[in-house]
Task: structure prediction
Amino acid sequence: MDFKDKVAIVTGGSKGIGRSISLLLAEQGCRVYMNYSRDEEAAHEVVQEAQGYAGEVIPLQADVTDPLQVARMIDQVEKEGGWLDILVNNVGMIKDGFLMLMGEGDWGDVVKTNLTSVYLCCRAAIRKMIPHKQGKIINISSISGIIGTAGQVNYAAAKGGVIAFTKALARELGPFNIQVNAVAPGVIETEMTTQMPPERVEAIVRLTALNRIGKPEEVAWAVLFLASKRADYITGQTIVVDGGIV
Result:
């Protein structure tokens, strides 16, 4: 998988799954623009860890739920990098709770962060990709968006929307040789998982064939494959990385 001279954006790239994706792409030779929202220290740590890699990690602060900031981010990447080859929409958040007790803010914040950000980043990015008639878009969904999870109606709805969005956009962009796919992780060792009740995590782990929690780098390898030329004939698909929830 040769990523030399490739330019990528990874949203929410300073922590958890996004961090692993940013580092793995950089290790393979990619120039990675690592988007983050607030935690500058975490972003700096990722940049430092990538020192000596074949590629590089460049921090890029932006709120990807804000259309103006997204447009500026994409323009900056094109200006500095020359073009945009890969977009990984990874940013996400949870605000769990049962629907009967869920406030409108908890619904709106989760949908905006997990789904609207994908719409905004894709809309801006494809305007750069279409003229070159090439590009890879990988949207991070969740197993919750496929099977649903009690207490995560807002998150499941948003992540399920990401999968439907991915399928529809793949059809739109196929004529331009742009592949759009999704990755749906199960329970992965991240900061987000620590916000979930331990008993819920344990219950999901018991459903997996491998009987363990996943690692961020195991999701990153799936993203790397979809971002590579080896996945040129794959589009509109969702790769599930959940340890075998059957």
Notes: The chain has one domain: 7-241.
